[in-house]
Amino acid sequence: MSHTRKPSRSLNLAPATRASGRIRLPGSKSISNRALLLAAMCSGATTLEGLLDSDDTRVMIAALRQLGVQVDEAGEGRVRVQGQYPFPIKEGTLFLGNAGTAFRPLTAALSLMGGRYELSGVPRMHERPIGDLVDALRTLGADIVYLGREGYPPLRIGALRAMEENKNGGAPSDRVRVRGTVSSQFLTALLMAAPLHVARTGRPLVIEVEGDLISRPYILITLRLMARFGVNVACDGDSRFVVPADAAYRAPGRIAVEGDASTASYFMALGALGGGPVVIDGVGQDSIQGDVAFADVVQAMGATVVRRAESIEVSGPVVARGERLRAFDRDFNLIPDAAMTAAAMAMYADGPCTLRNIGSWRVKETDRIHAMHTELEKLGARVESGPDWLRVHPVTADQWRAASIATYDDHRMAMCFSLAAFGPKGVTIEDPDCVGKTFPGYFPAFGDMLDGNAGARAAPPVITIDGPTASGKGTIAHRVAQALGWSVLDSGALYRLTALAVQQNGTNPDDEMAVARVAQELDVAFQGEQVLLEGRDVAALIRQEQVGNLASRVAAYGPVRQALLERQRAFRMAPGLVADGRDMGTVVFPDAPLKIFLVADVRARAERRSKQLKEKGFSANLADLLESMRARDERDRTRANAPLVAAADARTVDSSSLTIDETVRVVLDLWSSLGFQPQE
Ligand SMILES: Nc1ncnc2c1ncn2[C@@H]1O[C@H](COP(=O)(O)OP(=O)(O)OP(=O)(O)O)[C@@H](O)[C@H]1O
Ligand SMILES: Nc1ccn([C@H]2C[C@H](O)[C@@H](COP(=O)(O)O)O2)c(=O)n1
């Protein structure tokens, strides 16, 4: 989840030419989080299907559970919420990460429900304004105190003021005003919580919007979902909403969550930039999400769009061959999230593209106008910007620069800039895992679409390198990954980190389940040469022989292997992965197109390890090393769970008398012999 996530590795995307294929979108974040809260606030049970599984929805589910609401997993993408109003737990401290779709609506619901809570988030959440919402809630009797800067989270919510204690001396107001110009989430939060207020007063509540309402389509999502839960709000244009006196949420039984239309924008862009066709399942012309209108944007830029009830198909020029999209000058007030995708596409246009009325970008996950401006310039684009606008000039072939793109812990920055892969230099995305906020599987899905790969393989290619300790797996894996421009997974490091964490926190290494919990909760990040365990660089520490030996012991536990399995698979992303360990080819990536079993005579290995340890400043005795390696090999080979054995289809490479360069060459040649070419 976002509050524990540390910036991860970088991802190199090689230049791409064509994109085509089919994607089933993950559930809409906006619908998922609204539906979760509405289901929690009504009487009866609701099953939500197609629910998004991402950082932001996990934040919402965790908060609801903390508040005593029963939320049960009911199969893939499905949860069952047993609504309970008011929430049973009346006091608590909620950490809501950077999830605006959780923070704002929960602030409103909790402050009108009664109870004492503290709500906080990541530092960026504390820079995102909430004053307009708090002011409105106070007129309804809410007691909210800022714990930091006035107008911003964190907040303390106190007990509701009694009806007669309103600050105006009368009952809580039946009319509330809220500004519409900063974030539409304020109005959404008030609307969703309004039935709690009318249940108290017994009178209708009138909500008036001051100023122009931004991102209006998101309000339509709110109103339509409230209607599904039995509350119909009367609207007078965008400026006046009346919640009836008898408003009370009722469980609809089942809600099917549409695919995420903002996420669809990246795949529409893929079709528009890489020829297509790209078929996007899960949203279509019947969608209730405003961002589906991004199809009009790509169409105006020259793409061909076919709209169906629940899918959209996009084809377009092949920009990598020099074909261009049409430039635009557009107001993006209604679709600010998808608008970011247009800004990235602008690099491939036939003239400057201007995005207007995007002031809300300033208060999103990051200041997106600043971030977009800065990162587009790194790629060679000329960019201009103002308080609420951005102009991007197209990048010609000779202007493109190879760049490493910072993503500002903003999922949309990472996803937008993946589109820079259609430039001639490719692109590096820093901290690509920030996409977990809305679409953890984005990069594998993106990679599958590129250069005619769609459908040809289930996931990006993996070269596995398994073998005994000190056979050179890690060294060779890094060098091969470097030559191919791929990512690398040192799976042994995860077992070593588990061992180190067990050692450091005093866990009993014989207690399988306790060790598995440590493995499950490992807080690790790989950053270049650094291996961070809870933020501390332990790259050298985990290389110690005793840590390796403990790693080998705990690696024999089935629950530990299970706990680390998906974490390892998550490293698989385009354009490819080189993974080293003991069971990479047999268990973790059994479909890898190339599997290497790297061996070397035990004496050669002991000598290499001894030299390596001494270079890192640790003492080493050859005889001891020989003995401990033999024991480790034996344990790794004979354990019941995922033993060290060559996969049936592995190629054995003996590096005893090869240099590192020679070993790398053997692997790259094997890869090329499969019909794949090393890049550069
Ligand atoms: N031909 C070779 N191939 C690979 N590594 C070699 C070779 N010759 C010497 N080495 C050295 O062997 C040492 C051990 O390599 P490395 O740490 O990559 O092994 P490993 O198999 O990943 O070990 P472990 O499984 O214990 O992590 C390194 O210092 C590396 O430079
Ligand atoms: N895929 C893996 C990787 C490692 N292990 C275990 C066995 C090793 O002895 C230990 C340390 O690994 P190394 O860093 O030496 O590669 O971790 C495993 O069981 N499966």
Automatic annotation (TrEMBL):
Keyword Kinase: yes
Name the record gives this protein: Multifunctional fusion protein
Residues reported in the UniProt entry to bind phosphoenolpyruvate: 29, 100, 128, 185, 368, 412, 437
PROSITE patterns per record: EPSP_SYNTHASE_1, EPSP_SYNTHASE_2
Organism: Allopusillimonas soli
Positions of ATP binding: 467-475
Enolpyruvate transferase domain mapped to chain residues: 16-444
Family (UniProt): Belongs to the EPSP synthase family. Belongs to the cytidylate kinase family. Type 1 subfamily.
Subunit: Monomer.
Source species taxonomy: Bacteria, Pseudomonadati, Pseudomonadota, Betaproteobacteria, Burkholderiales
HAMAP family associated with the record: Cytidyl_kinase_type1, EPSP_synth
Biological-process GO terms, alphabetical: amino acid biosynthetic process; aromatic amino acid family biosynthetic process; chorismate biosynthetic process; pyrimidine nucleotide metabolic process
Domain Cytidylate kinase: 463-670
Pfam families in the record: Cytidylate_kin, EPSP_synthase
Residues the record marks as active site: 337 (proton acceptor)
Keyword Transferase: yes
Reactions this protein catalyses: 3-phosphoshikimate + phosphoenolpyruvate = 5-O-(1-carboxyvinyl)-3-phosphoshikimate + phosphate; dCMP + ATP = dCDP + ADP; CMP + ATP = CDP + ADP
Ligand binding (3-phosphoshikimate): 29-30, 34, 183-185, 215, 337, 364
SUPFAM superfamilies: EPT/RTPC-like (SSF55205), P-loop containing nucleoside triphosphate hydrolases (SSF52540)
EC number(s) given by UniProt: 2.5.1.19, 2.7.4.25
